[in-house]
Amino acid sequence: MTGPRQIAALAVKKVTYDGGYSNLVLNSLLDESNLSGEDKALATAIFYGTLDRMVTIDFFLKKLIKTPLKKLKPYTLAVLRTAVYQIKYLSRIPDSAAVNEAVKLIKKSKEGFNVSFVNAVLRNLIREDIPLPTGNSAYDISIAYSCPQWIVSVLIRDYGIQFTKAFLENALLTPPVYFRVNTLKTTADTLKTELEAKGVKVVACEEKTALEADTPGSVENMPAYKEGLFFVQDISCQKAVASLDIKTDSRVLDLCAAPGGKSFSAAMYATEGEIVSCDLYEHRVGLIAEGAHRLGIKNLSARVADATVYDGSLGLFDRIICDVPCSGLGVIRRKPDIKYKPRDTFEELCEIQKGILNNADKYLKEGGKILYSTCTLNKAENRGIIDSFLENHSEYTLENDYTFCPQEDNSDGFYAAVLSKCQPR
């Protein structure tokens, strides 16, 4: 029978060796298991905790193992990583239990020849006091806050050391969950009362469409969710869409729409207008359509389209949303596997972002507005893209832009800029 630690180790292996997405990998393994709710929670905690702390975990392992970690068998390394996380960061689990369970996992695997090795490494970890670096170099911060050194260097370059430390410390915490109230069906006050009656702790937000919720278990299983009374959307995204000043009769194009949150928010402003939501992949377009149906949104059409390629049949729009593909550094506390993607996958993004924004211009009416947004804090992908665009498009003005910071705004790390189009000068 598969236990929570085995699920966690298998999931870590799939993410680190096969390049799987953390949420999809874990959900698939949990769905296939027969674990209790309590054991699923333990597997989830170990899995995400290991990914959160993996740079630091590997620092400990390198102090104890002479062989380069990349030469270890994949499952053995995954088991070691999850066991180190339990020993160093899960106080409710006795050290002896973490070691014994790790040994059991290896013993019943195809890598059983590593039983003595795993046992020795973990017992040495318990015996030895390995201090973490405390300096302010990119390396020291990388190890102390468990983030690859190149990302730390980018953050220090853009924001300085103190900001970087505060951001990375926050990235190891549990992120808040925000509901976007479906104002087509209910109000924030009514939904708050209904959720509290079901035992959900809810806090009203300054943004009247938002509720911060302490959710017990799966949001998708909540009756209010099934009834389409809300969808999950970070407060930064809600504020960004609000800043676009969408009118009741606006025609809105969302060029990179999946899974649909910004399109849904737009539809709740443009109640007599039209929302065209595009994505490159058919299955993701299906998710947008399903979400719109659940929420009762009638004026949204979802279609497959390449955000970098102009399609004249779509016509012109009053408002355009460009939530472009990005490095995702602002949401590493939600998706820690982002930290471990190859660096070269990020370096191609700026050209794609420029291409999408330039294409958006072709769809926009004079007097219209574009929302450019990312879930990263990398300035090259944010204000750098906006400044480049403005240099080549004199008919645009930057109406406003803002960088949301988790440790300051209790939100995701997020950038939003609103560009207004006037007559060419």
* Overall number of domains: 3
Name the beta content range.
15-25%
Structural class of the helix and strand makeup? alpha/beta
Contiguous runs where pLDDT drops below 50 for at least 5 residues = none
Could you give me the name of the CATH homologous superfamily of the largest domain?
A: Vaccinia Virus protein VP39
Radius of gyration: 23 Å
Order of helices and strands: HHHHHHHHHHEHEEHEHEHEHEEHHEHEHE
Strand order, sheet with most strands: 7-6-5-8-9-11-10
* Annotation field: number of helices: 19
- In CATH, the architecture of the largest domain is 3-Layer(aba) Sandwich
**Overall mean confidence score, pLDDT:** 95
Largest sheet: 7 strands, mixed
CA-CA gap between termini = 70 Å
Molecular shape:
globular
Q: What percent of residues adopt helix (DSSP H or I)? A: 40-55%
